[in-house]
Write a structure and sequence with these properties.
Chain lengths: 247, 247
Amino acid sequence: MRIDVVFGGAGLTPSEVSGRVVAVIDVLRASTSIAAALANGARAVVPLETSDEVVMRSKALERADVLLAGERRMRPIPGFDLGNSPSEFKREVVEGKTILMTTTNGTGAIASAAGARDVVIASYVNYTAVLTMLRTALRGGTDITLVCAGRERQFALEDAGCAGRFVANVSKRLIGVTMNDAAQTCALIDRRYEQIAKLFEASEHGRALREAGFEDDLTACAEVDSYSVIPLYQDRQITKLGPDRER
Amino acid sequence: MRIDVVFGGAGLTPSEVSGRVVAVIDVLRASTSIAAALANGARAVVPLETSDEVVMRSKALERADVLLAGERRMRPIPGFDLGNSPSEFKREVVEGKTILMTTTNGTGAIASAAGARDVVIASYVNYTAVLTMLRTALRGGTDITLVCAGRERQFALEDAGCAGRFVANVSKRLIGVTMNDAAQTCALIDRRYEQIAKLFEASEHGRALREAGFEDDLTACAEVDSYSVIPLYQDRQITKLGPDRER
């Protein structure tokens, strides 16, 4: 059994995806916002590469049923309903809606994982829910790949740190689990930054968000287990893995 | 002033290369073998992407002047003069020769750095020589990028650890130096693995080399400062930065 970490979705090879459970991590902020949206009753989140695609897709749907969401350079996209702050995805806003979302990094990484047995969206806010699913998979003999979305295809400390927390705990009390060099490195980062606030302070993107006035988002993204939800990517949309579709 | 680390040459952007000093690191084993070859009197090392290119290029040169070198899956390429073990690049073999070299990862990363102010080849065996050059550049206001070649475009622990040793020391007693998330992570790895032998034991590629019988190569690649040489990539070949071409 293997636990591998890949930095940046672009480098994913078929052997790192095929038949595996793949967890996509974009802590600041796409993964966190997706967890918030689904926990607060959104019907689905549809990740799209570009804002043009969001607009096009929205035209094919009933306007009252959809929300347009996303960011470019951290800022909400003009004309869209929502940006990429987890706090925007409140129940009174998102319940029953389909959210068409484009973000700088997260959506691309999710798309690159297509072909996996399961693709889940992971972050600190849904840590234990996803960890439980990954442990179950690993116990059943399924290999796991954690994809750190990163920033513009480069390494991001906060995604690696979050991946490291999964690595450190997913194989506890299991024997015969091997991991790649990136997974070892992520575990090292998690040990160095036990406090998530410190991890975000050390990260370039964390600092950029703070400077841009998104301090509250950093607090929200660091709240471990605030949403007990497993977002599952399937048929080009992300929905909540719930009792009605338990596997 | 910046010190940035990039994992895998494929992700290099123009802003990470242009006007910078770029150090390419493929500790196991291309960077080490290149340092050994030049320190032992090779006229030049020409990095090439494929073994076909090596054969083609060799036909345009006097056979007595060239050596064909390289590996595929760690093994020497059939019909070539040399593999990729540093110990093969002895003075009696390489002196005065032009070495046409292809390796799985190193050569691609070197090619991707074209466009930089200077491209140097770095490893543990020429650590202090390269460090001195990088410090001089940084002091003069030139940004630095360390490219970790990695394995098949993926993250390799040994390259990151070596990069981390440069990161940790290149900016000592300099103020106003910023680094990206990857550079911070590399410094963390270097602190964790002060002993290079332990770093190689933890690395997947280090273990693979050991299992394939290249234990001696691991020892050679861990010998800090065994060659006081700065290999400089220019005009598609790597030569020794020496007194006659000091800059």
